[in-house]
Design brief:
Layout (H helix, E strand, L loop, with lengths): L1 E4 L2 E7 L6 H8 L14 H13 L3 E8 L2 E9 L16 E7 L10 H15 L5 E4 L6 H9 L3 E7 L4 E8 H21 L1
Length: 193
């Protein structure tokens, strides 16, 4: 899948736990990635964690590329078997998601929004995906705003072993409505210039 955006061409590929570990380690141990709870991870910890993901039929990690260069991390999981087991009543077609845009000294306006839009489009490319489920930390207000921008609706707070999380859902229809609304705003701005 490739998405052309105002910030470049965004694509995803399967993550290689060994080849990509050093890059991931630099991203996951940066203070900006505190919500990933790997700030003190060693390189071998990151390798091991993503080798476990790669070997698990209920989750996968993907590396996002911007114009061919590594630019973000995406994880997809089956909430029936991972992350949310026993914390909510899953529905057929539910898919769990995490994403990380690493820290940078040269932020690109609109990049993170383009990333989450690309991640969601990738998840909904699978016709079996009916709804995307997320469980960000309740204090992560930046990601709550991004989630809302692509159609997520918070349901309730839940207590996970590692954090208090805001359980939120986004159906295919909610995502399509949010992205059409965003496109109209962008087109309106361009026309009014």
């Amino acid at each position: 899948m490739s998405t052309s955006t105002a910030v470049g061409s965004l694509t995803v590929r399967l993550l290689d736990p060994l080849r990509d570990a050093e890059l991931l380690h630099s991203w996951l141990t940066h203070p900006k990635a505190a919500y990933w709870m790997m700030l003190d991870a060693r390189l071998e910890d990151v390798e091991r964690a993503y080798m476990e993901v790669a070997a698990d039929e209920h989750q996968e990690a993907l590396l996002g590329l911007r114009d061919g260069e590594p630019a973000f991390l995406m994880e997809r999981y089956d909430p029936v078997h991972r992350e949310l087991v026993g914390l909510y009543e899953p529905e057929p077609g539910d898919v769990g998601m995490h994403f990380l845009v690493p820290a940078t000294d040269t932020p690109v306006p609109g990049f993170t929004r383009a990333v989450i839009t690309t991640v969601m489009a990738h998840l909904f490319e699978d016709p079996r995906t009916a709804r995307v489920v997320v469980e960000p930390d309740v204090t992560n207000t930046a990601v709550h705003a991004l989630n809302e921008a692509v159609g997520f609706v918070p349901e309730r707070e839940i207590q996970k072993p590692e954090k208090k999380a805001l359980l939120s859902f986004c159906t295919r229809e909610q995502f399509e409505k949010a992205t059409k609304k965003a496109a109209r705003k962008t087109t309106g701005k361009a026309m009014s210039v």
